[in-house]
Structure formats: structure tokens, C-alpha cells
Amino acid sequence: MSVRKTQYEMPKLDPKERIKTFSEVALGYDEETAIKEAERCLQCKDKPCVKGCPVGIDIPAFIKAIRERRFEDAVKIIKEKNPIPAITGRVCPQEKQCQCMCRLNKIGEPVAIGRLERFVADWERRKGYKIPKIEKKKSKKVAVIGSGPAGIAVASDLALKGYDVTIFEALHEPGGVLLYGIPEFRLPKEIVRQEIDYVKALGVKILCNVIVGKTITFDELRKEFDAIFIGAGAGLPRWLGIPGEELNGVYSANEFLTRVNLMRAYRFPEYDTPIRVGKRVVTVGAGNVAMDCARTALRVGAEESFIIYRRSRKECPAREEEVENAEEEGVRFMFLANPVRFIGDEKGNVVGMEYIQMRLGEPDESGRRRPIPIPNSNSVMQVDTVIIAIGQRPNPLITSMIEGLEVRKDGTIVVDEKGRTSIDGVFAGGDITTGAATVISAMGAGRRAAEAIEEYLS
Description:
Elements (H helix, E strand, L loop, with lengths): L14 H4 L12 H8 L9 H4 L7 H9 L3 H9 L5 H7 L21 H15 L13 E5 L3 H12 L3 E5 L8 H4 L8 H13 L3 E3 L10 H7 L2 E4 L5 E2 L12 E3 H9 L18 E5 L3 H12 L4 E6 L10 H9 L3 E4 L1 E8 L5 E14 L5 E5 L5 E4 L2 E4 L3 E2 L2 H4 L26 E3 L2 H4 L4 H19 L1
Parallel strand pairs: 1-2, 1-4, 2-3, 4-16, 6-14, 7-8, 7-14, 8-9
Antiparallel strand pairs: 5-15, 10-11, 11-12, 11-13
């Protein structure tokens, strides 16, 4: 039997149209295309793709169900391990996880696992959710700090086991980084809200506008709950540490994306959250967040959007499809260059960027070639807005107030393989333990912690 070597393409909005709107770029498979893509799966007995999935979804089984038009069964199989497939199907780096393990890589392209996951999740959203059987209610109560991917995963798993679970969210709407950090054109907010509604339907209570450490103390939580999971993410921006970062018009990626995504700055003055971009925007960094910022800048009025990155295109940490989308939309790349200072006017507004050319040396601890400045290669360019997108770290607000909690120098919480912290009954997972990582890896940490919490409580 011959197998098609390439994936079936997923339709996208035309680049000229999509930079005028925040509508979703990728449009998803239709039913017949999804079935044809599912037919490419070899149904390997040893399931190598499952080994690449941080939450262990039975990938061949759900793909087989799609092949046989048993879409409801496909949803059930995914949701045994993953409560929010409409989200992960859109934003997971499948090419670095499940798809990179696919045997079809030997002859061509892997099965488009992420696209198929998205297809069945969207099919379910149109049909309406079915709530799985929930175990008999237990008397034990669990507090979850943070409603991002790790918190959602641990809360869903424990709710299905019958535990009384309450999520505490600092912002005015649940979803964490899914809501404030990922633009509408990549992950529509309505999808996040619908997936959160599914989690609520399992019996999980979500309290917003609650800042643990301010609104309520950690000690108060410990008195009320039998176990606590900390999944507060990594929301504190990293900075370059160069002159001029304090100027008006220099944003962290967190602030820029939160203003646009959660506070709807792109609909000003209907929503009273202004965002300043000017004609030329420069984003520093080349990860997925940097691509999101550069692409968002065009949609909120920038005439030119640049990405400056100290390595080459080959070393970009962003997903290849996100780099391609940015290129299609007109984002311009300045590779092998790095800012050394930002220049302000007499009013304190950023008006320029001095940068230096780089060359690549030997690989560093990340495995990528180390960028080395080239002496006397400095240049200056005019800029109206700068966005710093070089990563995040955990906010110390919670961790600094918990006596006896072991924390690393970078602010991440020390946990064992099951998410147990140095304090009995307190667990943690996701970006607050690893630093900024992927949605699905945070969910995997949440699921492991859920097992450990159940073990602890029983």
C-alpha cells in the first residue's frame, strides 16, 4: 500500500487580508480532508508518536477513529488525557513532539497530528460538549493557584476523581497565558472561553481577581484546603539590561500582548486601553512570542514591523509555521544583529535603536551557536516602538511569601518528578517550575501533579 508522502494542506486566510483583521489565520481541515490525512497514519503497534506527547494521548487510536468517521470516539480518546484539545491543537509545537516521532518522517512529512486534534475538537464544539462520568464526591478540597494550562490540567483531573477543586486567578478572566499571551489570530478567545466552560462543567470553581499573597494569604489557603497546587506561570518579563529600556514606547512582550489580547487595545476607543505603535516597530527576539508581537503590531497600525535576532534564521526558537506566517504578512527580519541601546527624545520617547552586527561562534549550553559581537559594526535605525520578547520568569510575589519553599535563583520552584515541593501537601507545575515552556508540557506537569495529589490525599 502506497502512503502519501506529504501532509494535506490546511487552508489559511490570505496574508493581505489577515493583517487587516484579528480573525484566525489557520482555518482548519474540513471533514473529508481530515479523513484523508488520518488515512496516512501507519497505525504503528509500538506507537512512537505517543512517546513524544507530554500528556500521553493515544494518538493512533484517535486517528483511527477519525478514519472511521467516529468523531465522538476520537474526542473521548483525546480527553482521557487532555481537557482542552481545541487549544493544544492550535498552539502545541507538534513538530517538536509527537510529529517528530512519526515514522513517516523517513519518507516525507509526518501525519498532521495537531491539525487532526484541532479538527475533532472543533467538531465537538459545534455539536456540544458531553461531560464524562465523574467519580463519587470526596470530602477533600484542593486549591489551584493559576488558571493557565497547568492549573486547568490538574483541576480537571482531580474534579473527575470527585475532589472539590477551586482555582484562584489573579486576572479578571480565567485562562492565564492562553488568554493574555496568545493573539486572537492564532487562538481565538472564544475557543479559550468554551474550553474553560468545559472545565467548569466538571465542577471546578474558578475565582478571578484573587491575587494569592495580596487578596488572600498562602497561610489562609493552607488552613482551608487539604492540598495546594501552584501553577502561576512565568509572567515576569526578562529585559536586555541596556540603556534606554525605560523610555516611553519600549514595551515588554507581556505588557504589549496583554493590552491587545486581554484588554482589547485593538478596539480602542471602544475599549479604553490605548496602545502606541507608530510607523516602525522593532521586536527583539525570535520565539513564538516575538512572532506574535511583530504580527500583532501590523494589525494595530504599524507600517513596518521588524524582528531583530542575534542568531540566524536557522536558530529561531519559534515554530517554522509561525516564522513563515510572519514572513507572509510582511514582517522583516534582521538576523545576526543585537540592540546595544535605545535612543530617546527630549520628552522621553524612544526614537531610535543602536545595534551591532553579530557572528556565530561555537555552540553554547543551549546547543545553538553562540552569537559574538563584531567590533565597530554598529548602526542606528529610527524606531517608534520597541517590544522586548526574550523570555519570561516567575513572579516572586507568591514564592517569596511561602516560608520553607525551595526556590532556584531564577525564581522557579524546585519540585520532584511528581510535582511535589519542599512543603508537605504543596505541589507545583508548569512554567513556575521550568521557566517559560509549551502549553502541553505545562499540562503534562499538571497531570503528573494530579496523580501525586490524589496519592497524597488518599
